[in-house]
């Protein structure tokens, strides 16, 4: 017994760092274990995937996001979807070329059939891989084996992206204000803009119908359809419906969002989209799936198609257990329980169920835990073409601001510009996302100007697994100048202790004229709501003019990239006490020589 106890301790302690486990089809190395051998039960991915905290699976490739914001990829690479600059298949994880990110760590990854997406800490969106329908969102149809920026010249201008997902040949982005933008293939209306016209650039989905007045909080992309979760717990769907995947009781294609027929009195908290089927978990723990069920992927004990959501069979292996998340692949499904166990159902020809067999399962079956997963607590699951993945972790801290994850050491909290003695507040959320509780939590300030910031609400010392808490920061600067500090959050997370977040604030004397334009700082800051603050940043003003340039007759929309801005100057007329904004604009249709823009009149909206 002593030897068994010692072995158990060693196994549990080995999960203190994140570990990635894979199983299923492996003909292109998508298991990431250095082989092309099919895996009918979980195996530990190559050691280079250590510290992968989240992942995404495409048709025959996968990506993993490390805790330091670096991306690894492996598997099929004919279209450059691994982002390593080649078209060489990889059986071991290789780094995605990160030079395009300009040093900004990645906080989200997504995988379509053969393209990838990444969101960085500074809010920029990148894509790579196949681009035959414009799914990279850069205005072209050229494939790219390295990350390229998704265009922000149109609908994405001024938006903060908080989540991304990808279908077979289309892409979705969720913004902080609850909007969804889409681009790529639209053959089946999967972009949700009311048309079936493919788009090379992001554009908003149709919000004029069932989504009117609603705020979207989460998105999921299926093969040729899309799902959205709203703040009131309702799910909406659009796109291909040939296999009932929209859950509206029909097989009618929908180019605009329609409501999934779920019980509104039991709001949805988690959901996912597979190739031809969908699933959701409610606030009470009920699980529903709908769509294609040819291989039992709905888990209701049958192989019958379902045009309306049906409950998952929980009378067998799931008796007494509660699922906390779903991951849906091509023809199989995964479910994760609150105890960190994984169950699977559906097609199993390639070992995607992970139960050691190739037997199709129409009801949930436990993924084997007598091998690589022995003693592991799984914290997240992922399903793709015909493969599956799981991440196991011990104590793990996640910190986010306004729903956007921050990375230790690089996730800047910028309070912007304010006047001395004014107070600005930010509340950050601390989550315990690992197997074990976060303990020893405490926050402190260090760096150059720690006294210019104040922790007004300390977190509790312990946050249970799957729990969360908040920490409140305020500014307290009484002197002018650029202020920087470091927020340190201590915990028992072994590889992120302390979790460090740089802080920044520009404090200005209200009576001074820092930029020498004849206007005191207090007046300039008060002009920020009008769309500009020339003392520090005029990006809002630039965005306003760019978005309205065609309507103002400045140039054609196709030439929108050719506008150049000088520094705006604000002048006050002492006689009338009114402000005049002087803009310097230049245009170059060829991006060659620049010439001043003349001969136009802009009439501002008095509001």
Poorly predicted sequence stretches spanning 5 or more consecutive residues: 1-16
Strand order of the largest sheet: 30-29-32-35-34
Helical/strand content category: mainly beta
What characterizes the major β-sheet?
Answer: 5 strands, antiparallel
The rounded distance between the terminal residues' Cα atoms is 78 Å
Provide the descriptors you would attach to this structure in a database record.
607 residues, five-stranded antiparallel β-sheet, single chain, mainly beta
Gist of the model:
With 607 residues, the protein is mainly beta.
Characterization of the model:
With 607 residues, the chain is mostly beta strands. The protein is 5% helix and 40% strand. It contains three helices and 42 strands. The strands form eleven sheets. It has a five-stranded antiparallel sheet, with no helix packed on it. Strands 2-1-28-27 form a four-stranded antiparallel sheet, with no helix packed on it. A hairpin with a 3-residue loop joins strand 11 and strand 12. The longest helix has 14 residues, at 539-552. Mean pLDDT is 87; it is low at 1-16.
Ordered list of secondary-structure elements with their pairings:
Blueprint: H1 2-13, E1 19-24, E2 39-44, E3 52-57, E4 61-66, E5 71-75, E6 90-95, E7 106-111, E8 115-120, E9 125-129, E10 144-149, E11 161-166, E12 170-175, E13 180-184, E14 199-204, E15 216-221, E16 225-230, E17 235-239, E18 254-259, E19 268-273, E20 277-282, E21 287-291, E22 306-311, E23 323-328, E24 332-337, E25 342-346, E26 361-366, E27 378-383, E28 387-392, E29 397-401, E30 404-406, E31 413-419, E32 425-432, E33 442-446, E34 453-457, E35 468-475, E36 481-490, E37 499-508, H2 521-526, H3 539-552, E38 563-565, E39 569-573, E40 578-582, E41 585-587, E42 595-596
Parallel strand pairs: 31-37
Antiparallel strand pairs: 1-2, 1-28, 3-4, 4-5, 5-6, 7-8, 8-9, 9-10, 11-12, 12-13, 13-14, 15-16, 16-17, 17-18, 19-20, 20-21, 21-22, 23-24, 24-25, 25-26, 27-28, 29-30, 29-32, 32-35, 33-36, 34-35, 36-37, 38-41, 39-40, 41-42
């Amino acid at each position: 017994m002593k030897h068994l106890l010692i072995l158990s301790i060693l196994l549990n302690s080995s999960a203190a760092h994140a570990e990635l486990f894979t199983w299923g089809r492996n003909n292109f190395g998508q298991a990431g274990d250095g082989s092309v051998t099919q895996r009918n039960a979980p195996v530990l991915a190559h050691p280079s995937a250590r510290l992968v905290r989240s992942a995404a699976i495409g048709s025959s490739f996968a990506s993993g996001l490390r805790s330091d914001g670096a991306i690894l990829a492996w598997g099929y690479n004919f279209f450059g979807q691994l982002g390593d600059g080649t078209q060489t298949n990889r059986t071991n994880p290789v780094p995605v070329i990160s030079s395009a990110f300009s040093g900004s760590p990645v906080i989200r990854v997504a995988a379509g059939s053969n393209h990838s997406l990444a969101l960085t800490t500074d809010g920029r969106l990148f894509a790579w891989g196949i681009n035959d329908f414009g799914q990279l969102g850069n205005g072209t149809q050229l494939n790219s084996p390295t990350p390229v920026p998704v265009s922000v010249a149109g609908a994405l201008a001024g938006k903060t992206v908080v989540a991304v997902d990808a279908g077979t040949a289309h892409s979705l982005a969720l913004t902080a204000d609850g909007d969804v933008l889409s681009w790529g293939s639209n053959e089946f209306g999967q972009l949700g803009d009311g048309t079936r016209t493919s788009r090379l650039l992001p554009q908003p989905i149709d919000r004029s119908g069932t989504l009117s007045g609603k705020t979207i909080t989460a998105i999921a992309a299926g093969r040729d359809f899309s799902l959205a979760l709203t703040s009131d717990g309702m799910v909406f769907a659009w796109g291909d419906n040939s296999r009932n995947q929209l859950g509206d009781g029909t097989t009618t294609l929908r180019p605009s969002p329609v409501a999934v027929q779920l019980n509104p009195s039991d709001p949805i908290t988690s959901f996912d989209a597979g190739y031809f089927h969908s699933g959701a978990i409610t606030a009470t723990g009920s699980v529903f799936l709908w769509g294609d069920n040819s291989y039992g992927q709905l888990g209701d004990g049958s192989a019958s198609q379902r045009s309306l959501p049906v409950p998952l069979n929980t009378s067998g292996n799931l008796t007494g257990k509660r699922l906390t998340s779903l991951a849906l692949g091509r023809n199989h499904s995964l479910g994760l329980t609150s105890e960190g166990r994984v169950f699977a159902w559906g097609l199993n020809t390639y070992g995607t169920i992970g139960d050691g067999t190739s037997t199709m399962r129409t009801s949930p079956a436990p993924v084997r835990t007598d091998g690589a997963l022995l003693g592991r607590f799984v914290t997240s699951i992922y399903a793709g073409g015909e493969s599956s993945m799981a991440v196991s972790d011990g104590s793990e801290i996640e910190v986010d601001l306004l729903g956007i994850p921050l990375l230790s050491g690089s996730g800047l909290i910028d309070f912007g510009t304010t006047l001395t003695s004014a107070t600005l507040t930010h509340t950050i959320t601390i989550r315990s996302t690992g197997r074990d509780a976060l303990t020893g939590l405490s926050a402190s300030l260090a760096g150059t100007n720690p006294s210019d910031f104040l922790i007004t609400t300390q977190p509790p010392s312990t946050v249970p697994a799957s729990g969360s808490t908040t920490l409140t920061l305020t500014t307290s600067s009484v002197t002018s100048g650029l202020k920087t500090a470091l927020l340190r959050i201590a915990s028992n997370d072994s590889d992120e202790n302390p979790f460090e977040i740089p802080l920044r604030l520009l404090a200005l004397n209200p009576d001074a004229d820092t930029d020498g334009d004849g206007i005191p700082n207090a007046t300039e800051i008060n002009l920020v709501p009008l769309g500009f603050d020339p003392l520090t940043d005029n990006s809002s003003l630039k965005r306003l003019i760019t978005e309205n340039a065609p309507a103002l007759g400045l140039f054609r929309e196709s030439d929108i990239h050719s506008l150049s801005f000088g520094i705006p100057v604000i002048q006050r007329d002492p006689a009338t006490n009114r402000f005049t904004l002087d803009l310097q604009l230049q245009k170059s249709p060829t991006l060659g020589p620049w010439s001043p823009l003349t001969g136009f009149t802009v009439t501002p909206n008095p509001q």
